Amino acid sequence: MKRKGFTLIELLIVVAIIGILAAIAVPNFLNAQIRAKISRCVSDMKTLETALEMYRMDNNAYPTCNAARVAGSGDYFHPNEIRFYRMTTPVAYISSVPRDPFTSERAADWAKWGWAYDYVNNDYEGSNHTGGWGHLWRINSWGPDQVNGWGGQRDGHCINGKPDFLYQTSNGLVSKGDIVWVGPKDPQTTNYCEIINGV
Question: Per the structure, how many domains does the chain have?
Answer without folding.
Answer: 1
